[in-house]
Structure formats: structure tokens, C-alpha cells
Amino acid sequence: MTKKYVMLADATRCINCKACVIACRAEWGTPLGHSRDWVREVEMEGPGGMPDLMLLPGRCQHCDDAPCVESCPSGAAYQREDGVVLVDHELCSGCELCVPACPYDARFLNPETGTVSKCTFCQPRIDAGQPPACVGTCVGRALVFGDANDPASEVSRLLQEKEWLRLTSDGVNVGPNHYYHTGGRPLPPEALPKPTTPHVQGRLLEEVVNPLAGAGLLGMAGVFVAAGMKKLLDRRSEVQRQEGGHHD
Amino acid sequence: MSKTTDPSRRRFLGGAGLLAVGGYPARALARVKAPHAAEMLGPSREVFSFCDMCYWRCGLKIRVRDGRAVKIEGNPEHPNNRGVVCAKGNAGLMAAYDPDRLKFPLLRMGERGAGKWKRISWDEAYDRIAAAFLKAKEQYGPETLAMIGHGTWEKPYHRLAHAFGTPNTTSPVFGLCCGPRDVANQLVAGRPLGGNETLDLENCRYFLMMGRNITESLHNGETLGWVEAVAKGAQVVYVDPRYTITASKAKEWLPIRPLTDHAFLLALIRVMIEERLYDTEFVAAYTLGLEELERRVARYTPEWAEEECGIAAKDIRRIARELAAHAPAALVYSPRRLTRTSNDLGTGLAISILNTLLGVWDREGGIFSPLSFPVPEPDLPPFPHADAPRADGAGVEGVWPLANAQYGLTNQMWSAIAEQKPYPIKLLLTAGGNGFMNSTDFDAIRRAIGQLDFFVAADIAPNEMNQYADILLPEASYLERYDDLQTGGAKEGFVAVRMPAMKPLHDTRDAWTICKQLAGRLGLGAWFPHASAAELIDERLKKAGLSLAELETKGIVKKPADPARNFPREHGLPSVFPTPSGKVELVPSRLKALGMDDALDYLPQVRPQDGEFHFTFGRVGFHTHARTQNNPWLADLMGENELWIHPDAASRQGIRDGDRVEVADRNSRKETLRAKVTRRIRPDTVFMVHGFGHFDPRMRTAHGKGAADANLASRDRDGHLGTVAMGRSLVRVRKL
Amino acid sequence: MTERLIRVRDRRTIALHWFNAACWALLLASGFGIISGDDVRLAPAFWPGLVQNLAGGNAPVVSFHGVLGMVWAASILAFALFNLRRVVRPFLAEVLVLTPVTAWRDLRFTTVTLLRLFGLAKNAELPPQGRYNGAQRLLGTLIVLGSVLIALSGAYLFLAPKLLPFAANPLYGELFRWALMVHAGTVFAVLTGLIPHIYFAVVEEREALESMKSGQLPVDFIRHHNPLWYEELHRSGKI
């Protein structure tokens, strides 16, 4: 059976120690100023005006309907059968069309490679049966990773046992495979994804150039198919007329 | 321009509109499936080690590729971390690859601290050091040498100093950190609990956290155990003037008035005795002094405590009852650095007494008895007897008899050097550490250094203190060397090894090599008989029936946890309390003998006058004290500290979030930094993260970033221990 | 009646046309095979899927497309340089639609021609045409200018990621995205124009297709379709 990899983040266990962030930097050599993962600390007002905090570790959400894959011209952004969204660095030109397509801001142009980087769920590690670097190092064991299609996996068990939320909003739901447990509290609005603003060229291609070209090509082809048909019909009636003439 | 992304939209309007209309299969339109290249990780091998980024020392597996350490992982077998590694531990790679690292031996050329250096050979460095040391020893006696260590592997330096004949070795762990906590437990129960506290966290059901910010002043195994307990539903009452991440995990945050924890604890003791909430069986069988304690705490009513500490009397009563209801799976959790007030010993005693009244000793969810893994030390000649008493007075009758003589009182040592009292100290050898940033008295440090004939600093990276050295010795980092064994006492006993992941970078040498070579020059070679640290630990291991070769394949060898020995009272076995009476002493006999039992009584602390604030400082989970601010990876997470100030207080001064402010104490010591206006702190208190404000220009990342809390923290002392009362500073804040 | 033929183009020009056509076919096939993301793709996914799987990934397709594109552009450029005076200048002078007046005239011609395919606008007056009629001139202009744009944008798309540090200056990526849009948009425009080009060659005017093989065209065909050219040929004594 095909695997279905998911990441679970238990916000009640996260302590924002950033071990995941540094482990990821070390594993992937991410240049300073960028990171493939993060911990979001949202300060809120709790009951009675008391302070309250929510800690949300995050990374690429490896969405079922990953907008980055759809916006990538070269196919450098791709998704494996098991759901892991990856970058093919041989193909990536660094055009960044995918960067604003991501509602989670999970992609960035890596100045050292000139290509777009993002979380890979530590694909070489998981294929070798190890946890992703962030999961392996997580001090509060807030991160759990595994195959949701395997009923015996820890993630399957936890998905059953606890209540899980995903970072989706009315405007944005692209099927993220990153789940959050908040101990029953609602996710703060500032943590939810906002509709994205893609690059103007990407939008023009999608909304103007391609539809126009599709219509133009179809229209033009239609015109000349019709012209050809008419010519065929004309010729047939001409022949009939001539044959009829003979009869006369 | 914005668009909403809806999967269904794509299915129907997918770019190829021209064919989708014709009923072209939607799935085929949606995705191109093709072969792809993926990012890979190169092949690597693993060596075992234990961490040196803080003092908890977690077990590690270090991945090595092409002769370089490339990734640090946790060793799941190690009880100190069970496989997890914090941000500091992960960033340990940058301790080795730090571009600002000390790279070769340096000789001071200009004035001390002027930053003019000349590269010299190791031989020249040793010759110069030996000449200066022998000359001063001749003139002033061996006690003229002070050795101040900190954190990097300081054991060989202690050995070198003791072989030299001085009693004056110290590191900040006692006088600037955990001293009062350990002494209190030692006095009450004869069990100091140690640096890796022996608390059965996973099974505890109720935590009263006395400013123990366990999620940010974090040690992997300890934090993980606590998180596990909380995830299993343990209740947390968090007592701290500041709302930390730990507070966010608590059922209840009690923003106590700074420096008044003792008042709150005394009232808890009183309620517990008055309402007979304590473990009567345990108290009857194992303790002495309940009646006297009851008399002594009679005046500390919850109402009195409410006045003093700001926590409501009814809450104090309720918490006492809740604690008792959960006992013995309940803990009053001591802060780690208990150097805050002029009576920290009293606070420590109160915590130890409360835990005793709850009967948590040797009970599940309470305090356990650790197992040890004894590995004999090598046979060395006895150290020469030091005639002089310790200059810092630690363990010296009539001075600071209760202070630990192994680690000493580092601040008192600096003062002793500054004053040249009780005798001249003319030589200083430091092994790691940063006197400026870890003590609270820049003045004393500068004056002390000015008194020295010769100052040798061994370290891995530059800092404010070692920039004053006469000779600077560059050490190999913990990723580049063998070290002496780590033997530990947790529920499991264990011995762990540190193996080098790579050869020392630059012209650096490991501490054991440095000390051995220096000892040779000083005629002390007999105390360093091993050719290397590897040979030393192999000899030790063989005495314990193991070998280095064996340990190198496993990283750690353990004696399995034994519930009957960890929790004897759960198994019908007696607890052992090695006090003078053999019982838990609720009023410690040693204190009475010393006439210091007034530590049990409340000593009122300073209060801010109009416009003043209590000054507090503390940690974040991704910096270690004052020594990681220049680590590029950790600086990327937090490059400078901020002054936390409550919005009400900020608005009175016209301070807005992000404004630059000046903080000044009553002695006109000043620091500037940005303000963080937040409800997460009491209005009468300000806070900053410890360790910033570096002024050594060699630290190119950290230099000039943020403010040095060490330059504002109080220089007062605990009256019984000589430890530093850092929390007694009162400051004013001014918008710049 | 024996057809009188006249040579209207030489072998090299014919070879260039078919070379150009072959390149276009391959570049279109590979180009449509490269663009993968659903939001930016026009072809249905089966095509890039097929092409990329046949090639063992998109990287070889990209390389093929880029290298062939550069060969194509370089060949045409070389031809243009070597035959500038003899072929290219006269061709451009005949073909390029450069003023609004000519554009309007050619557009009207094109429209009427199209309508007549469906038996409409039979009575509309059409001015006599030269060597290239209005529709051919419009298409020719589209192809000439389009090819320049396609070649330039294509060169940037292929070479810039290999040569320029995109992270150092956001302009590089900005330009890449514009180039991508221009490249695709221009190809689509030219491709749209190629539909009538092929229709007329294959269905309506087989003589024209023949001439692109033999180089010869019946004089009657010229007199009928291109009277101005016929007059010119006549004047210059070529007929």
C-alpha cells in the first residue's frame, strides 16, 4: 500500500526551544537568514486578561494539492506518491514562481544553490527508516512523523487518540499533511494561512496568456476545420451538380 | 492581487481548458508524473560523544563525513537526553567551525586587554608560562596560583593546579549558580541531589515550580521528563514574576513579587503543619525537629505571606492542600540558579523541608536514589598539601564554612585577587569561562587582573575575560578530542565516552595534552603519567572491567535501573539519609552548630522605590549562559536581548515596544537595549535574557549586541554561604 | 494546356524553410513537454508526462529544447547574415507590416479572404496583391518578430539560471518570469498563425506547397493570386 506521510505537532508539548530549526540547518546546510522550518510563538490574551502563548512548529505542509507544484514551470517542484513534496534541483531555475504560491511561506531561494529550498521531510532519512532531523531532535517530543496509511504507526494511533487541527482557512485549503494538537484551544487567526499573492507573470500566464492561447488555438483550428468541411461539401455538391448536368 | 486556492477549481479549470471540456480525465490533467532527482545526504560514519554546550552533558552520536563533523544526533541510550538534542547541542558544530575561534597560541603585545597579539609556538608559550609560574611560586608560594575553570573540560586544569600545590581552584557552578540548592538538600537530608537532579519527573502529578523555567533554562532529559508528566496530566503551578514558556504550560501562573519566594514557602510549611497535611508516617519515622520547625514558622501565616509576596492567602492554603493531595507524586521544584537573595539558603531549606513533609524521598513521582557506575580513578601521587586556606574562604571555618570547597566561591576568589587578601595571588590560570559575564562585578574583575603578574587563559573562543590574558592557549573543541569519562548517576548508572569526530582544527590542542605538556615544564609530570586522554580512560575502564575499544562501539555502558534501589520505600526497604543524625533534619544540626539556623527565618529583601524596578534576568532555550551569543547559528535565533517591561510601566515612561532604553542601577552601572513591552511580566519588574552585551571586538557576531545583565545584577552576598545575591538590584529605566 | 513554371526561390531558402519547420515541430513538442505545473501549463498533462518519461526526466528535455533552440536561432541568424542582401532584405521589405495603413489594408484583406472561405463577402473589392498577400504579410511579420522574441527570451530562460546568481538580485528572477511569459505567449501567437498557414498550403493552394519543394510556381498561379508581383516579373523580363 502506498505510504501517506504526515507530520504531527503537539503544541501542548512544544517549548519553542528551536532544536528542530538548528537540527534542520545542520542537516541541510541551510544558509543563515533562511530556514526550512520554524516555531511560531503567538502571544494571546487568555482568560482574565492573563497572557497566553501558543507554540506552533511549522515547515512545508506537504499538501495534497500543493500549489507550489502547480505553479512550477519546469516540474522542479514535484510530489512523490507518498505525498512528500520535493524540489528537483537539477530542474529548478530559481524563478521563484512557487515561492509566493505557498500559503505557508515554506519556500525560499537558496543563495548558495540558486535554487528553491524547502523542507523535504528529510526524504533520504525517512527512506532509510530514520525520523526527519527535526523529529529526532525534538526536546519535548512534540513532533511525530510517520505513515498515516499504516494503522500500526504512532501517527495513526495519535490521530485517533487526540483532536487534530490543520492550518486551513475559509480561503485556503490545499490539503496540508501537517497536523496540530492544541489541547482543545482554537488555532489563533494569525497562524492560519492567508490567500496568496502570486507573481504577476504567473498570474498573467494562468489567467490571460494560457486562456487566450487556448481560445485562439481552438478558435483558429475551428475556423479552418469548418472551412475545410465547407470546401468538402461544396466540392461534393459541385460533383453532384455536374453529375446532375450529365443526366440532363 | 490575491487569489484563493481551492482544489476543486483546478480539477475543472485546469490550465488545459481546451481539452478538459472534452471530458479528458481530470487526474491526468492535474499532475505530470515523471522521474526526478532528489536531494541526498552523503555517506557518513558515527562516533560517540557527550555534549559540552552546557553542563547537563547529553549523549551524542556525531556524524562524520570526509573527516569533518557534519551533524550532531542524540544517543537514545543516554539517560541524560534519551536521544533528543536541543538547539545549543545541535549548534555545537559551530563551536568548532566558529570563524572567530582561537586558532593558535598568542602572546600579548600591548597593554592588557588592548587586543594586540603575536602568534607564538606552543613551546614558547609553555616556556614563558613555566618561567612565570615558577618565579611566582618561588616568591609567594604555590597558593599564589588561582585556577578558575568553567565548563569546557576543566578536570586536567584542576589536577594541574592541585599538583602545583594551590588550594585555589574554583568554577562558578557553586557560588554563582546551584550552591544554595545543593547545600540546603545536604543539610536537611544529606543528599545534595546534584547537578542532574534526581527527580522522578515522568511520574510526578503535581509540580510547584519555584521560578524553575524548565522549558527555557532547559536540559534535555529533565525537560523531556517534565513535558511527559505534563502531557500525562500533571498539574503545574508556576511561580515567577515573568510569564515564561513554562508558565504557558501551567494550570496557574503566580506572578510573585521578586525575592519573596521564601515567604511563600514558609507559609506553605506553616499551613502544611497546621492542617496536618504532611506525610505523618514518613515524618515520624525519618525526621527530626518538627516541633521546633512548627514554632519557627508559626508567625508566617498565609496572610503575612500575602502581604510580603503578593500571592493570596487562600491560594497559599489551597496549594498546600493540593500538594498534599498529590503527595508523594508531588514536587516543590527548586530553581537551578538559586543565587538571588541574601538568604537563598533559607529558600533552599524551605524547598527541601516541604519536599520532606510531602514524603517524596525515594517515592515514585518524587525524589529517587540514583545508581552509580563506579570507574576507579588512575593511581596518581598524592597532591602536595596546601598549607594556605582557600583564598575565597570556601569551606574555611570562620569564613564561609558551608561553601563547597571543590568548586569554591568564584566571586569571592575574584575579590580576593582584587584585594590581594588574605594573601597575594599573582598567577591566574583560566580554563574556559568568562569572569565578566558570569559574575556580577566588572570592577572587581578588572582590578583583579590588574594585580596579576601573569594570566594564562585556555579557551576555544575569544571573550571579554581572555582578552586580558598574557598568553592565550587555543583549545580543541569537544568535537576534536578525547576526554575523561562521563560517569553518571540517574535511575541507571552509566559511563559514557567522548570520542573525537575529527582532528583538532587550526593549531589547537586538547586540554589533557596542554596540561600534561605544561606539567612537564613545571616538573609536575608525575601527575600526568598518561600519554593521552585516550590512554587515561582506557586505563580507568580496564580497572572497571571494560575497555576503551568496547566503549567506542557503544558510546555508553549502563547499569540498568533498579526500582528497588531507586525507590526503596516503594518496595518496603528503608531510605538512607546521611546526615549527622541519620534522619532528615527539619532544623539542620550543622546549621545550629554553626549558629546559622537563622537561615530558616525570613529575611526581608529590597523593594523598589518610586520609579524603580526589580531587575531580573534569565535564559532562553537556545543560548547557553554568556557563551553562545557569538555562535552564528544561535545568534540567528536571537542576536540581542530586550528589556521586558509591563505596558503600564512602559506607558508611564513613554516607552513603546522597540524603543531603545537605558537601564541603570543604584550604583550608576548602565546598559542600553531595546524594550519589549509585554504583559508577560509584573509591572514592578524588568527582565532581560542573560549573556548579551559582549564588548570583546573579536566576537564579531555578538559584539555590541544587546545589554549585559552581569553589569546590572547585584553584587550582594548570601549571608550564610557567600554565594551571590544577584537579584537584589533595583534599576531605573529611561527612554533614549 | 502546359503549365508555364517559374523559379521563385532557391534551394537554400527551401532548405531553410523546412529546417525551420522541423525545428518548430521539435521545439513545440519538447517545449510543451517541459512546462509541467498545472497553473502555467497549456498542454494536457499526458503530453509532458509522456515526453518526460520517454526522456527519463525533464532535465534532458530541457537540455534538448535549449540546445536545439540555440541551434535553430543560430542557424537562422547565420543564414540571414550570409544572405542578407540577396534574400533577407527583399523578403523583409516585402513582408514586414510596419505602418498602420498597411496593417489595416492587410487586415481587411485577411478578413475578406477568410469570409470568402465560407462563401461570404463575395462582392467585396480586394486590391491586387504583390508577392505576399495581406494575410501572408501579417503572418510573416508575426513570425519574424515572434522568432526574435522567442529566441531572446528562450536564450535567457535557458542560460540565465546557469550563469546568473538569482538570489543576488531579484531582477534576474523577475526577468526570467517575464521571459517565460513572453516565450510562451509568443509561441502561442505564432502557433495560432501557423494553422491557416498550413491549411492554405495543404488544402487551398497546393501549388504553394509544391513551390516550397521545387522552388517553382506556375505563372498562371502568380497572375491570378499575385498580380502586382506578376507585373513586376513581367516588367523585369523574368516572364
How would you portray this structure in words?
- The complex is a heterotrimer of chains A (248), B (736) and C (239).
- By secondary structure, chain A is of the alpha+beta class.
- Chain A has helices spanning 19-28, 67-71, 123-127, 133-137, 154-161, 200-247, and strands spanning 5-10, 37-45, 51-59, 77-79, 85-87, 108-109, 116-117, 143-147, 165-166, 178-181.
- In chain A, the strands form four sheets. Chain A has a four-stranded mixed beta sheet with strand order 8-1-10-9.
- The longest helix of chain B is centred in the N-terminal third of the chain and has 19 residues, at 122-140.
- Chain B has 736 residues and is an alpha/beta fold.
- Chain B is built from 26 helices and 25 strands.
- In chain B, the strands form six sheets. Chain B has a seven-stranded mixed beta sheet, with helices on both faces. In chain B, strands 21-23-22-25-20-24 form a six-stranded mixed beta sheet.
- Helix content of chain B is 31%, strand content 16%.
- In chain B, helix 11 packs across helix 15 and helix 11 (261-274) runs parallel beside helix 16.
- Chain C is elongated and about 60 Å long.
- The model of chain C has no long low-confidence stretch (mean pLDDT 91).
- Classes of the chains: A alpha+beta (248), B alpha/beta (736), C mainly alpha (239).
- The interface between A and B is large, with 71 and 62 residues.
